[in-house]
Design goal:
homodimer; 269 residues; alpha+beta; PSTPO5379-like; PSTPO5379-like fold; 2 domains; 7-stranded antiparallel beta sheet; 4-stranded antiparallel beta sheet; 11 strands
Chain lengths: 269, 269
Amino acid sequence: MTPLGDVRAIPEATPGEIRLRMRRGEWPGPTAGLALGHAQANLVVLPKAVAYDFLVFCQRNPKPCPLIETTDPGSPEPKFAAPGADLRTDLPRYRVYRRGRLEAEETDIIKHWTPDLVAFLLGCSFTFESAMQHAGLPVRHLEDRRNVPMYVTTLRCRPAGALHGPVVVSMRPLPLAEVPRAILVTGRYPWAHGAPVHVGDPEAIGIADLSRPDFGDPPRVERGEVPVFWACGVTSQAVARAAKVDLMITHAPGHMFITDLLDEDLASG
Amino acid sequence: MTPLGDVRAIPEATPGEIRLRMRRGEWPGPTAGLALGHAQANLVVLPKAVAYDFLVFCQRNPKPCPLIETTDPGSPEPKFAAPGADLRTDLPRYRVYRRGRLEAEETDIIKHWTPDLVAFLLGCSFTFESAMQHAGLPVRHLEDRRNVPMYVTTLRCRPAGALHGPVVVSMRPLPLAEVPRAILVTGRYPWAHGAPVHVGDPEAIGIADLSRPDFGDPPRVERGEVPVFWACGVTSQAVARAAKVDLMITHAPGHMFITDLLDEDLASG
């Protein structure tokens, strides 16, 4: 176990060690760069009554919603992605929504947990960004230490029951010559959003102004670069919020669940 | 529309034309080789009460159970894989199970259909076998015009609710030198079982005698060849049958649903 509070030592810690710190409230910050090589995940917690529609929604929209874990109703343990972990305490920060409205931001969700809740983990862009970096591809918002820009598009998700809405995308600008490699590298990870859903012309997918993202920070796009758009995990949250489900709990943006899985476990094969 | 009964003309027909013939009862036979280039699918129909567990089971076991469609409860239309098709009539042959027992074999399931049923389509090995053939790899049971041999293994599925059981695999023997290429070629199709789950030593996965498969025909394995095992869609049926669900309807073996999707739509990317 690395000494308490030694931030620089955290990247060397195992997923289990890092989760234990979060459980103790010792790591309230974002998770980018932690436990490198291990897959991080989006968290969505919903009542069982809505879980069926959510499962079907994810099945119908695997690019924005690549489901890697469904807990047993009432159980906060992700038995596949991190046996022994507790999804009520092992993330640094949560958001609690009631009937579509943000009600609270919490560092644990013990007091919100009920036996009818189901937790879902969805693969996250950190996995394919790591693969891009290993391939020598630039990841602009990481270079600039900013949040990735995200946009609500005119692409529609395939609906499921009460759940419907637009595909939300994240954008990373790339030199034109690097686009094919970026497509191949990220396309290897169908459980982490896979290949881009769109390349170039933002207006073709309903984005009027690249410099004004709906979430995250405005991008820096250089001359000779093209915007490349990947389906984004925020889609699932946006859809459940729009459906005004009684209760939805998610990770706070950038404060992901760190799994025991390797990034490679989210690859095809 | 090709003339009635002209079997040789069928491979040139579109998926929609072939389904229409099946709907009219004009094509009761197996579907191998039909609508080449288009993905065929396993059918599993279950009451909504079991559908939640089945969805979670597929999410937890994507290699044997690669889910490509979930219909809305009561609707027999696979809106994604074949808009306008009717899953009650558009397969050549069905099997009806009640409480785990085979009750009937039918050429349509109109009289069994109720508003609480959900139909699931799962990707099928025909997709990756076609890719193997395009890559010049031998597919032994096709060369020999036999059924693929299938085996119940000691590999366990991750359980979901009432559903649990062993992974069933199909086996194709390959010259050792061809194994890497077969892994790469089939690994491109995560929605059609993906890469093999095991190569070589059958006993390591609980198969005592390769020459006595649990389903299908005994294989011909030549000197210098190694058995290669892929997760098989029969797994999902075996698991639902073992759970003695009130009603399960499946395609009859080899009598698949022909989708409008291309094989390539089941690839990663």
